[in-house]
């Protein structure tokens, strides 16, 4: 199911469709009802077809709503990955969500380090390229099956020691 961008612009687009999909995945996460999960993933896939190889949005007539995709589409897709970490790439490491504001983050071969605004926070990362081996600045819970790392941070700077995933 695709969603028109506006009632005045009755053309399906990636902004509203990706928003709908992300909310479906949030619902699945909060309730455990995954009956719309596959449909939401298909909506996200459909929405990504509107983005060209160089990152620019393409709409049928290149009308005024194409700017929604630059901010909204990306934000909705990132939220969808947080609510369904399986959507995040299996070969890369990604911060999926946080309860603070991240000031900076670096993904290195031996560590993932990030600075944030609040001392106490909760983060969730999908580790596809790495396996966590230790942490400074908090505690962690690792699920090797899903690749999801949950961090309870107690410092403004967190350093996660990692090893390449085999």
Can you describe what's shown?
The structure is a single chain. The chain is built from three helices and eight strands, in the order αααββββββββ. It is α+β, with helices and mostly antiparallel strands and 166 residues long. The protein has two domains: 14-87; 93-164. The termini are far apart. The mean pLDDT is 89.
Please specify the SSE layout and strand pairing:
Layout: H1 14-31, H2 37-48, H3 68-83, E1 93-98, E2 102-107, E3 111-116, E4 120-127, E5 130-136, E6 138-143, E7 148-154, E8 157-164
Antiparallel strand pairs: 1-4, 2-3, 3-8, 4-7, 5-8, 6-7
> Over all CA atoms, what is the radius of gyration?
18 Å
Would you tell me the overall average pLDDT?
89
What count of helical segments does DSSP give? 3
Q: Please list the strands of the largest sheet in the order they lie side by side.
A: 1-4-7-6
SSE pattern, N- to C-terminal: HHHEEEEEEEE
Low-confidence sequence ranges:
none
Search tags:
2 domains, 166 residues, 3 helices, alpha+beta, 4-stranded antiparallel β-sheet, single chain, 28% helix, 33% strand, elongated
How would you briefly describe this protein structure?
The chain is an alpha+beta fold and about 170 residues long. It has three helices and eight strands; from the N terminus they run αααββββββββ. It has a four-stranded antiparallel β-sheet with strand order 1-4-7-6. The protein has a four-stranded antiparallel β-sheet with strand order 2-3-8-5, with no helix packed on it.
């Amino acid at each position: 199911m695709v969603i028109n961008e506006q009632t005045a612009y009755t053309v399906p687009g990636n902004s509203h469709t990706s928003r709908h999909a992300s909310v479906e995945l949030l619902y699945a996460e909060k309730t455990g009802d995954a009956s719309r999960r596959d449909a939401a993933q298909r909506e996200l896939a459909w929405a990504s077809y509107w983005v060209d190889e160089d990152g620019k949005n393409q709409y049928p007539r290149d009308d005024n709503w194409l700017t929604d995709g630059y901010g909204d589409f990306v934000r909705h897709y990132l939220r969808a990955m947080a609510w369904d970490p399986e959507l995040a790439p299996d070969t890369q490491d990604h911060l999926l969500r946080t309860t603070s504001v991240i000031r900076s983050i670096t993904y290195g071969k031996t560590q993932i380090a990030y600075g944030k605004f609040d001392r106490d926070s909760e983060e969730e990362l999908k580790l596809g390229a790495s396996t966590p081996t230790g942490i400074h600045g908090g505690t962690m819970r690792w699920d090797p099956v899903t690749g999801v790392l949950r961090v309870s941070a107690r410092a403004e700077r967190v350093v996660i020691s990692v090893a390449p995933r085999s």
